[in-house]
Amino acid sequence: MAEQRPKEEEKKSPSKPLPIAVPSASILLISPSNEILLLRRVQKSSSFASAHVFPGGRIDADDGDLPPRVDVRLHEDGPAYRMGAIRECFEESGILLARPENTPEDPSSSSSAPPLLRLDERECHRGRKAVHGKEIRFQEWVGAQGGVPDTGSLHPFTRWLTPGNIAKRFSTQMYLYFLPLAHPGIPQTLHIPTSDGGVEHTEAQFLPANEWLDLAQADKIILFPPQFFLLSMVASFLKPLGSDDEERTGASETLQAQRDRLLDFVKTGDPPWGEKCISPTPLKRDGKRLIMALDEPGPELEGTDRKGDAERVVWVQFKGKDGTSGLHVGWKGDVLGKGLDEMESREYLETRMKERVGTAHDESMQRALRGAKENL
User: Over the stretch 17-75, which tens digit does the pLDDT of each residue have?
Assistant: First the structure.
């Protein structure tokens, strides 16, 4: 009888190391008329090519110290993220979010930023070029102009961790920043965004959030899930003014009320929107459309108490180099009970938002949802 040898253990291929999530930051920059700034990426970009994005980018060493990569606190709001967000906004759009150095920082002003530093357009252009070219540190240049980066007026509004199966990953802190409203008798700085000359972006424009969403759903621009999702959130609060609004309360009062309701909403949730960390994960497929859950915080934060948004989902058709199509946001609880065609109707999300006003138990949630209902 031939000697029997024990079976060799199956050789297991070693698991691939998790690609590093590069620390970055972006700003939903809100104009004096409550419009949102988006920049169009150049076609040759290695990430988000030709897509419309919020101003932002990687955190530089000059922006400040960050925790080690193995430290979960790397994925929390902090001074380096705030400085990087304001620097990148200046480099990419030419809009400098800095206040005069003698102006006290007033965190109680919520949705009303302090008066911004006023600089000559040519000096701004020279500084933008010098900072982008690493000829001078951003903070040093702002200080030389008699200003201080206005990091205190940034409002955290989710963090996004790229899923672990993507080679190029980011850990992106998102912020809201409200440019000062116009008031009678007070000189107003014109915040006209410009591209960076085609280095990273070819266009820069303010539009109402709902117009950006309409353009994306008509396949006239490319938006990726994080941008589409956050625009969908703010579109319920920041609405274009009509003549009735201006006649009833005045434009500035109406715009300020919209901002206040948005910030009330940001403070709600479990966790609040300023603390949510979202790493989209596939939930199911419906034809060519991928439905993604938003409740997971990402592989680096597994086992922690960090959470995303357990109530909503995003569905999208990825088109390779052509970007995305068919983006929509809906309630996770409705995905299994309804077809996507019904959920993609404009009336769907508006109706569900109104329904939730009557079922919310938290007082601040009710107040924020009533604000959204009034704006629908």
Answer: 899 999 999 999 999 999 999 999 766 555 555 799 999 999 999 999 999 999 999 99
Q: Are 85 and 113 in contact (CB under 8 A)?
A: no
DSSP per-residue codes, 117-177? PP--HHHHHHHHHHHHTTSS-HHHHHHHTTEEE-GGG-EEEEEEE--TT-SSEEEEEEEEE
By the 8 A CB rule, do 89 and 107 touch? no
Q: pTM (2 decimals)?
A: 0.84
The DSSP code sequence of 49-105 is: TT-EE-SEEEPPGGG-----TTSGGGGS--HHHHHHHHHHHHHHH----EEETTSPP
Q: Which residues contact 178 (CB under 8 A, 6 or more apart)?
A: 30, 111, 112, 113, 153, 259
169 and 161 Cβ atoms separated by less than 8 Å? yes
Distance CA 336, CA 134 (A): 51
294: which 2 tokens? 């938003």
Residue 280's region, left for phi above 0, alpha for psi from -120 to 50, else beta, is beta
Helix (H, G, I), strand (E, B) or coil at 227: helix
Element of type H or E holding 203: strand 201-207
**pLDDT single digits (tens) 317-355:** 888 766 888 899 988 888 766 666 666 665 665 665 555
Which DSSP category does 217 fall into? H
The three-state secondary structure class of 327 is strand
Please report which helix (H) or strand (E) contains residue 215, including its range.
Answer: helix 209-217
